[in-house]
């Protein structure tokens, strides 16, 4: 290795070419990176759905969902199985383990579902779909005071035009009802002509067709035979013949029915600032360039609104942005990039002050080389340019500079001492610190490696950080070993001549001040810390114990995922199934009023905004049972300092008030769905038992002051009409199947056929008129028609009664399930409530409900799995790190000394979070990992120097003090440069920077605290280790025992100039 360093130091052209290749490769790598706000990732799972129109939830559960569960429950790789039974449709959701081949898993699900032979005959074929991870990156609102048909037409036109743009391929229309042809036959017409719904539907099927009759080969060529009678317009359907008879002649559909070529049955009210609207949502394509694609679509929108081009909108219609994730992307990227550049500038200033300018310059260039080389290979790992990857760049700025600082400072020191200069100084200076530099990088890589192997969905996000860090560290090591020595090989002792010489002399005095400080201040302190080593160890240990207690007591709270704020507020209000549209419209008006009140409040509170409103626009979609809203805000960079999206959401939530009958009210203001709620799943096949158990859990949660919006997702009891066959009905030739099928045909309808229109299927339904379907009185007039042609009133053959019903059944792990929710105030309450529930509530609950199984779900479930996985992986990482260091230092105990940085870095991070009032989060662990890398590197430099001094004959105390003073400058500089590198981000007050605060606070605080660990605690522990060794040798070997620092043979004070050529730790000679 020494020869390799010497060769590169001598060959400046090779070193420069390597640097140029790294920079050029970094440019090409950057250009090829995808650009997205958040990694799209993969969703590991599949869903199976089967429609059975008109079936009750209980029937769907028994005959569809349970049968699906039976055939898929034992598929290899299945992690979690859930199901939902609703009226007319059943779903089964299958989540897989992360390492499962999802395509093969989906194929196996399809194969097993196809083997089910006992599904209801009238059920539709099963649909098996793989979970999609296409994220919506842009939303448009097409709005205006026009009729629904016009709005629907232009929405489809705009979607098709956007789909032709680069980046708009996955545009979809939302907020509109699908087209449908409804052939509405009244009961009076059925009686008059003695018809049935099935007869009308069959007439449509047999007359409205396109069919091929084959081909005829003649002498002049081939002629195809085609029947093209597919009805597509109202007139086409009206002219279809239903029956021909002597009494009525030719009976056509127009004689017995009203044909409505309109929209599907259902109620939907979509508005944008009060105007009817259709939404065009654009999903993220496979290859993403968020800024470019967003600009393409915005340019199209501007042209359409201005009436330019073939896709111009007519007067009265307009498109506006609902949301644009590229604005969030640009804002966050600008903030992080600016902080990173400022940090690099501060690092360079520090290096110029305390090292020679040439060293500072090439070390700073080395940072750029390391990142350029890392970026060059990132596309190979599927890394994109997003919040997390740029976050990793910021995280590792202070780490990649460490290698260059240690090497550059040691070369600088060689030149300063006059022992070597030029090429020899560069070669020897690098070789002396080769071992701590190499193993410092390797241990830091190991610290980040577990995040790339987490067996859960978090890996698709955390692995990107690992790849960026490891790539940058690898190239920083290459730069420090092979490129930097060549650049510093021309460094000579400074000459202070002329005006520049005076400036350089001033710089030299500043740099020498560190050496003076080390000798006059740090050396006595170090001697004191080593002399009273057990006191030193006790003081630092007490700090660590206090840090643990702060976390355990939730004084420093922990949030698994930080909230990454969005630029808009999304509101979802779920009402009980079966709620009328009128109730949804009431909630819509309540929400709209709350937004208007909040807008007025902010306008009054921040008059400096002028004509701009904090709340720009509101879009609301109200359907039967649900209200959804997107509330657009001004970008964070344009808001007054300190106004977050959460603040605005809280204001709207307060003005909104309560919705007593709502099953769930959710105000979402984050991109990543991070929440602070409590969720418990209860499982049992008896719905009544589940209802009582859920009520008990809700009552307990209500006793905590920090909980609000406590609810469950158990279906509310809805009224249903039950039909029971009367005795004697069978003697009239009527069965229960006849009754239910004809009632279903009248109210739900019979699907006669599906028409292809503009790429969609349009259903043709035969049924009662809408006003009849919406009236219960019409049941009294309904006639049941027998196979003999008789018409019998429904009430003569069936009993009609009202009874409570169920509109939705949820299942989890093949049992009926309910989830209880509670939102929390503040960050520090969830763990406390969970602990209290475990101790004071669940034991009695389990006695009361022995057959009910339970479990925490939602974020807490992910957290528990994550903690188990990452703990296991870090145990492996620490073992690998220990083995690596033990081999490098030929010692069993010294690796433990070097790894002291990890727990004490954690303690420093806790105190940092306490001081800044920032909750700890997953990102904090990355900061602690980076800090551990920095300080392990410092410890390596220190312990390696102590070992060399010991091998040269110095006693323990002398070696410790000499090493501490000699290595004070590089240790201090590596820690200070890491801290100042993130100082601009710590000082950031913008909303965009807040989600990074846990990382930068933990990194900065951990490095600051661990600096004292390296300078004081590690020497004290080293002395303790020496003393333990002496006691062991005295006890078992009979050797005389002497205190550390006592005068004895071999413990001499060796000056630096005498450190030459020893067998293992001495100065290497430059390779020729």
3D architecture notes:
This protein is an alpha+beta fold and 1072 residues long. The model is unreliable at 1047-1066 (pLDDT under 50). It is built from 33 helices and 32 strands.
Task: Write a brief caption for the model.
With 1072 residues, the protein is α+β, with helices and mostly antiparallel strands. The protein is 52% helix and 20% strand. The two termini are 13 Å apart.
Describe the secondary structure blueprint for this structure.
Layout: H1 2-10, H2 12-32, E1 45-51, H3 57-72, E2 78-86, E3 89-96, H4 102-114, E4 127-130, E5 136-143, H5 148-163, E6 171-174, E7 179-185, H6 187-193, H7 197-207, E8 210-218, E9 221-228, H8 234-238, E10 241-245, E11 249-252, H9 253-256, E12 257-263, E13 268-272, E14 275-283, H10 290-306, E15 318-324, H11 325-354, H12 357-377, H13 387-417, H14 422-432, H15 434-448, H16 459-487, H17 498-531, H18 533-552, E16 558-559, E17 565-574, H19 581-605, E18 615-623, E19 626-633, H20 645-656, E20 664-670, E21 678-683, H21 687-701, E22 707-712, E23 717-725, H22 736-747, E24 750-757, E25 760-767, H23 770-773, E26 783-785, E27 791-793, H24 794-797, E28 798-806, E29 808-812, E30 815-824, H25 830-840, H26 842-848, E31 853-856, H27 859-889, H28 894-898, H29 901-916, E32 920-921, H30 922-951, H31 956-966, H32 968-986, H33 997-1037
Parallel strand pairs: 7-25, 16-32
Antiparallel strand pairs: 1-3, 1-4, 2-3, 2-29, 5-14, 5-15, 6-14, 7-12, 8-9, 10-11, 13-14, 13-18, 17-19, 17-20, 18-19, 21-30, 21-31, 22-30, 23-28, 24-25, 26-27, 29-30
Helix pairs in contact: 1-14, 1-16, 2-12, 2-16, 11-12, 11-13, 11-32, 12-13, 12-16, 13-14, 13-16, 13-30, 13-32, 14-16, 15-16, 15-27, 15-30, 17-18, 17-31, 17-33, 18-29, 18-33, 19-20, 29-30, 29-33, 30-31, 30-32, 30-33, 31-33, 32-33
């Amino acid at each position: 290795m020494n020869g390799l360093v010497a060769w590169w130091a001598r060959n400046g052209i090779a070193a420069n070419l390597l640097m140029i290749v790294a920079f050029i490769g970094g440019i090409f790598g950057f250009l090829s990176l995808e650009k997205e706000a958040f990694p799209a990732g993969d969703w590991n799972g599949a869903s199976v759905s089967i429609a059975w129109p008109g079936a009750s939830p209980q029937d769907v559960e028994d005959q569809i969902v349970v049968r699906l569960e039976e055939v898929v429950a034992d598929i290899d790789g299945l992690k979690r199985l859930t199901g939902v039974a609703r009226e007319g449709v059943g779903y089964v959701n299958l989540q897989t383990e992360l390492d499962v081949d999802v395509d093969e898993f989906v194929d196996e699900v399809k194969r097993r579902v196809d083997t089910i032979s006992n599904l209801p005959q009238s059920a539709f074929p099963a649909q098996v779909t793989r979970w999609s991870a296409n994220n919506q990156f842009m939303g448009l609102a097409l709005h205006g005071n026009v009729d629904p048909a016009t709005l629907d037409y232009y929405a489809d036109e705009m979607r098709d035009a956007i789909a032709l743009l680069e980046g708009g391929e996955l545009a979809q229309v939302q907020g509109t009802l699908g087209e449908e042809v409804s052939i509405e036959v009244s009961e009076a017409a059925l009686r008059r002509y003695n018809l049935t719904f099935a007869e009308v539907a069959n007439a449509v099927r047999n007359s409205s067709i396109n069919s091929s009759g084959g081909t005829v080969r003649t002498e002049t060529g081939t002629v195809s035979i085609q029947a093209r009678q597919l009805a597509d317009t109202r007139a086409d359907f009206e002219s279809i013949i239903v029956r021909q008879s002597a009494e009525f002649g030719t009976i056509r559909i127009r004689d017995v029915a009203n044909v409505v070529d309109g929209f599907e049955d259902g109620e939907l009210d979509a508005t944008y600032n009060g105007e009817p609207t259709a939404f065009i949502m654009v999903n993220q394509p496979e290859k993403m360039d968020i800024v470019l694609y967003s600009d393409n679509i915005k340019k199209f929108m501007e042209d359409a609104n201005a009436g330019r081009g073939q896709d111009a909108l007519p007067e009265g219609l307009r498109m506006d942005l609902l949301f644009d994730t590229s604005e969030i992307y640009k804002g966050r990227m600008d903030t992080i990039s600016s902080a990173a550049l400022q940090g690099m500038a501060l690092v360079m200033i520090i290096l110029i002050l305390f090292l020679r300018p040439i060293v500072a310059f090439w070390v700073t260039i080395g940072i750029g080389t390391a990142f350029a080389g890392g970026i060059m290979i990132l596309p190979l790992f599927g890394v994109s340019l997003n919040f997390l990857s740029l976050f990793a760049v910021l995280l590792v700025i202070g780490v990649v500079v460490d290698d260059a600082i240690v090497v550059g400072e040691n070369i600088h020191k060689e030149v300063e001492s006059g022992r070597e200069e030029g090429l020899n100084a560069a070669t020897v200076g690098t070789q002396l610190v080769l071992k701590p530099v190499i193993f410092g990088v390797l241990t830091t890589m190991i610290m980040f490696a577990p995040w790339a192997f987490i067996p859960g969905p978090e890996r698709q996000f955390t692995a990107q950080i690992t790849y960026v860090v490891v790539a940058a560290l690898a190239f920083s090591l290459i730069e420090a070993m092979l490129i930097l020595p060549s650049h510093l090989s021309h460094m000579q002792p400074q000459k202070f001549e002329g005006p520049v010489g005076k400036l350089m002399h001033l710089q030299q005095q500043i740099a020498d001040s560190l050496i003076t400080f080390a000798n006059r201040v740090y050396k006595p302190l170090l001697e004191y810390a080593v002399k009273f080593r057990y006191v030193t160890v006790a003081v630092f240990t007490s700090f660590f114990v206090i840090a643990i207690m702060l976390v355990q007591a939730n004084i420093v709270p922990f949030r698994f995922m930080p909230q990454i704020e969005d630029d808009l507020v999304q509101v979802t209000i779920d009402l009980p199934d079966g709620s009328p549209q009128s109730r949804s419209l009431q909630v819509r008006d309540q929400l709209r009023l709350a937004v208007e009140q909040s807008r007025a409040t902010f306008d009054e509170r921040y008059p400096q905004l002028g004509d701009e409103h904090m709340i720009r626009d509101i879009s609301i979609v109200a359907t039967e049972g649900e209200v959804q809203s997107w509330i657009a805000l001004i970008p964070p960079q344009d808001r007054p300092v300190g106004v977050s999206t959460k603040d605005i959401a809280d204001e709207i939530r307060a003005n909104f008030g309560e919705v007593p009958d709502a099953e769930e009210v959710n105000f979402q203001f984050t991109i990543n769905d991070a929440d602070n709620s409590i969720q418990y799943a209860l499982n049992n096949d008896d719905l009544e038992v589940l209802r009582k158990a859920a009520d008990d859990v809700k009552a307990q949660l209500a006793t905590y002051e920090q909980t609000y919006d406590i609810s469950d997702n158990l279906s509310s009891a809805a009224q249903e009409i039950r039909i029971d066959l009367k005795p004697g009905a069978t003697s009239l030739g009527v069965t229960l199947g006849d009754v239910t099928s004809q009632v279903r045909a009248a109210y739900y309808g019979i699907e006669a056929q599906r028409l292809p229109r503009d790429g969609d299927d349009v259903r043709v339904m035969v049924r009662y008129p809408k006003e009849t379907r919406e009236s219960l009185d019409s049941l009294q007039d309904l006639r049941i028609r027998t196979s003999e042609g008789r018409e019998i009133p429904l009430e003569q053959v069936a009993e009609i009664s009202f009874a409570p019903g169920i509109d939705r059944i949820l299942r989890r792990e093949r049992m009926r399930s309910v989830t209880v929710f509670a939102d929390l105030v503040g960050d520090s309450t969830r763990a406390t409530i969970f602990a209290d529930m475990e101790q004071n509530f669940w034991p009695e609950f389990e006695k009361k409900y022995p057959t009910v199984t339970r479990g925490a779900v939602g974020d807490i479930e992910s957290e528990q799995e994550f903690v188990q996985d990452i703990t296991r992986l870090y145990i492996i990482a620490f073992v690998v790190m220990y083995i690596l260091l033990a081999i490098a230092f030929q010692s069993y105990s010294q690796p433990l000394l070097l790894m002291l940085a990890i727990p004490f870095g954690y303690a420093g991070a806790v105190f940092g979070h306490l001081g800044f009032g920032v909750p700890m989060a997953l990102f904090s662990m990355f900061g602690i990992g980076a800090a551990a890398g920095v300080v392990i590197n410092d410890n390596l430099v220190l312990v390696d120097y102590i070992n060399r001094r010991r091998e040269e004959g110095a006693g323990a105390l002398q070696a410790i003090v000499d090493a501490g003073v000699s290595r004070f400058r590089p240790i201090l500089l590596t820690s200070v440069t890491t801290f100042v590198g993130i100082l601009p981000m710590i000082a950031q007050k913008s909303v965009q920077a807040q989600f990074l605060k846990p990382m930068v606070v933990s990194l900065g605080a951990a490095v600051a605290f661990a600096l004292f660990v390296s300078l004081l605690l590690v020497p004290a522990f080293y002395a303790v280790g020496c003393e333990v060794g002496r006691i062991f040798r005295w006890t078992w070997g009979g050797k005389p025992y002497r205190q550390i620092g006592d005068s004895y043979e071999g413990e001499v004070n060796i000056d630096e100039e005498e450190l030459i050529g020893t067998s293992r730790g001495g100065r290497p000679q430059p390779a020729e």
